[in-house]
Write a structure and sequence with these properties.
alpha/beta; TIM Barrel; seven-stranded parallel sheet; two-stranded antiparallel ribbon; globular
């Protein structure tokens, strides 16, 4: 859920986050404003593409209502978060038309269209929402095709930059199973020009390898964070191929990360626990791209400021123990 190392235009300089003065920039386009911004965590190019993004992006899942269903309580706040993100240098937004459903993509369009040339919008397909807010697998040719057209319509695009096929053999975690049939459908839609590139989500290492026999895979998006580290080997393998790994729920999702060690380290280096968790991911591997989500401008600014946090080797060693302890406890 290939081309080799043509990526890794990774910037090692320390970025500085600042806010844009709207009065100073009122006669400038969004692209002009973005070009003024420092890189957020460095730059990375999706393999075999012209799509280069800052490593610290934004996930739009929380822009819809409770349970990722229905409209948000504060539509103006949702619009403000998106505009603030792009103004601060975010050029990678993760979304799906089953968020809402439809609503999140409509909010993105309202907030940001016409889109800046350098904005990369990544969406995903293979699920639909029930009236009870459930997540229902939608793997058929008809469902996948409809999902792509729904994304195009609600985002107001002629073609989608990247579409991730999300494995739905299990909603919670990757489970082995063939993705050949749905992936073939997406490959056909790519040939038709409706999709530019294809990625995977919620997948195993075997499914990634099998998918690469069918089409080029430009990214993999799985559940991974400081505590949940089942994909360590997959991340390293993808890095060798120049393929980005995009962890969803990098801050723990609906159950935010909580750790005494994390909080202690954060206090010691004058950062928030969530900033430390994001900084750890940025330093974990240069092929990791982050998409932390929030519906709050304040939290957005805190998340983006994680790009300024540098963790020493000794601190990283301490943080690594959190994942090791969680893995031992799970056994």
């Amino acid at each position: 859920m290939a081309d080799k190392f043509q990526i890794l235009t990774f910037v090692t300089c320390q970025p500085t986050l600042y806010l844009v003065d709207p009065l100073q920039n009122r006669n400038k386009t969004m692209s002009d404003i973005q070009n003024q911004q420092p890189a957020l965590g460095g730059r990375f190019t999706f393999p075999g593409t012209s799509l280069t993004v800052n490593r610290l992006g934004y996930g739009a899942m929380q822009l819809s209502g409770p349970g990722v269903y229905g409209p948000p309580k504060d539509i103006d706040g949702a619009l403000a978060v998106l505009r603030e993100a792009v103004a601060a240098g975010v050029d990678h937004i993760d979304t799906s038309d089953f968020y809402g459903p439809h609503i999140t993509n409509q909010i993105i369009r309202q907030a940001l269209a016409p889109y800046a040339d350098n904005l990369v919008i990544v969406t995903k397909v293979s699920a639909r929402r029930g009236e009870d807010k459930s997540w229902i697998p939608a793997f058929s040719r008809e469902e996948l095709t409809q999902a792509v057209h729904d994304n195009l319509r609600n985002l107001g695009l002629d073609a989608l930059d990247i579409v991730n096929l999300r494995s739905m053999f299990s909603i919670e975690h990757p489970v082995e199973g063939s993705l050949e049939a749905p992936l073939t459908v997406l490959a056909e839609l790519k040939q038709q020009g409706l999709i530019r590139h294809i990625g995977l989500s919620n997948v195993t290492a075997t499914q990634v390898a099998d998918a690469q026999k069918i089409t080029d895979i430009v990214c993999v998006q799985n559940y991974y964070n400081l505590v949940t580290r089942d994909d360590d080997a997959l991340i390293d393998n993808l890095a060798r191929q120049g393929i980005p790994y995009v962890p969803f729920f990098p801050l723990g999702g609906f159950t935010p990360l909580q750790s005494t060690t994390l909080s202690t380290i954060a206090g010691r280096i004058n950062a928030t626990p969530m900033q430390v968790a994001l900084a750890w991911l940025l330093q974990r591997s240069p092929n990791i791209l982050l998409i932390p989500g929030t519906s709050s401008v304040t939290h957005l600014r805190e998340n983006l400021a994680a790009a300024k946090v540098t963790l020493s080797p000794s601190v990283i060693k301490e943080l690594d123990q959190i994942g090791l302890a969680a893995k031992a406890k799970a056994k």
